[in-house]
Sequence to fold (324 residues):
Amino acid sequence: MKITIGKQESNWRLDKLIAQKFPQLSRTFIKEQVKSGRILVNEKPVKPSYELRENDTVVFTLEFTVSQKERKILPNPEIKLNIIYEDQDVIVINKPAGLQVHPRQDKNGLPLISELDSTLASGLLAHYPNIADVGDSPALRPGIVHRLDKDTSGVMIIAKNQLAFDWLKKQFQERKVAKKYIALVAGKPKENEGEIKNLLARSSSDPTKQKALPWDVKVKDGSREAITEYQVIKDLGDFTLLEAHPKTGRLHQIRVQFAALGLPVAGDSKYGGKTRQKPQGLARQFLHAQKLKITLPAGENKAFFAPLAQDLRETLEGLEKNLD
Fold:
């Protein structure tokens, strides 16, 4: 692609101009491209801060110049980590809502170019470069044993070395990890506590979504069992605050299962339906991974806790005021 600089664009920094024209690309990624010589001005390599002049020619082919070998997650020190615990084997963080855990994949199984430096994985690589080779798919999920949805906050554990990764992965596979989520759902459960058991499978109408199927149905579409226990914490009028304890770790599990009961997680744009209910001011799904209990590679049993995020606390305060 070629851009010829006009009068109005003169005196712009090169990196700022490209960021303005391609908002899906981050500034860090753009600077990396310029420094690597993949973006040229008048057929010459320049600095990201290069001040453009009228009639300059900017040439770049971002999609095509990043080969499969070069397509890798970039460290980004601007992504800060809220560390709860750390030792020689693991890092435990409180992930904020709005931060994706790792890049999505393109049709070739490679990380999307637009997400190479904007996920938790980039923050981890910036602070812990040695995890670049850790995991079962380190090019996409370095050190990452489990994940939280982008708009779910709370406790996550990351492996710092391969032995730790294998140990933690086995803990999750054998269902020895105890997890507690706090969720606000629209409506009221029939019982104050219970167990949800069904099968989850990829939706045929939307591949980004899961669908819930009856536990005893016979299917051949890759469905997997999902089990979640729950207890009601508080009745908040049109909403119910509850604890959810997933015994399995399926994609979107809690969100899909409660939506299937007619109790969607408040603010859930994917599973909340066309007229999804949410309290005033809530800007994301009300789901928080509050507690994670696990045996660490060193053999110690530990429980990690992340306090409820501020936006969720404010939502609860508003609902409780409405009850008065």
Remarks:
- The mean pLDDT is 90.
- The chain is about 20% helix and 25% strand.
